[in-house]
Amino acid sequence: MNTKDLAYFKALVEKRNYTAVAELFNVSQPTVTQAIKRLEKEFADELVHVDRAHHRTEITRSGQLLYEKASEIATSLSLAHQEIDNAKLSQIRFGLPPIIGTLYFPSLAGRLLKDGLLQRLKVTEMGSGGLLDAVKAGEIDIALLASVLPLHEPSLEVHRIGSRPFVIVVSRQHPLAEQGSVNFKQLANEKFIMLNRKFIHPKVFKAYSEYAGVNPPVIYRTPDIAWITSLVKENLGISLLVRDIVAKSDEDVLACLTINDPLPEQFNVSIVSRKGYVLTPDENHFVHDLMQLKLPKS
Q1: pTM greater than 0.70 (yes/no)
Q2: pLDDT of 124
Q3: Is residue 82 in some structural domain?
Q4: Fewer CB atoms near the end CB (10 Å): N or C, the chain?
Q5: Gap between the Cα atoms of 114 and 168, Å rounded
């Protein structure tokens, strides 16, 4: 079977016009017609019915079934092209969220440098949600991701490294600072300063709010973690963050409060790649090094 025939067929289903498909691929209309006929011979059934009386191009049920598979094949071929092209470059296309990159990844840098892998990395830095989509689309091949719950994606290979708790971060000047722990319901009227939706933190904030039946005001959102902690230090609001963001050097001006509400949400860290993607020897070595990543103990 000619993959170009499938491409013509897929476009015909979407455009329902032979002339438009021919123009799209810069070929003659008979070329498209012959491609459809070859496919119909291959599957021994009519795929496209031209209703000349009403000037309509109709797709039969067999054609609709083939279209679904053709879309999957097109996606797989596109991924194969990307993966093979990247293999020629000997790069490791790696996704790294800013928080994980700041908090945990530096501890691996020495090992990666020693193994000759650090200089091979082509790093894409963005929030975990965007990186998850990029892995699926074949734009990157390996990522360290954060998720609210352990990842279970049928299209992905997932190796969970561990998890860290979320906490409420307040200024030492705040009345709650000496409590040590807090029920989320107590925070109904507190002003929150939050990471934006490129991060998983807003999902956690929503889960705790819904569980407690409250709707605390979010007065400011930003992708800048340092800016959040600076504003909280000034007692302009409080925040919900993964525990490790507050360094020991900041504990004299910031307090981390344990959240008492019994929700399963954690800052789960996992190594992710596409199922079926064949790792190069260097990528296998890199994943092995990533699995040595140690998260702090609570």
Answers
A1: no
A2: 93
A3: no
A4: C
A5: 38
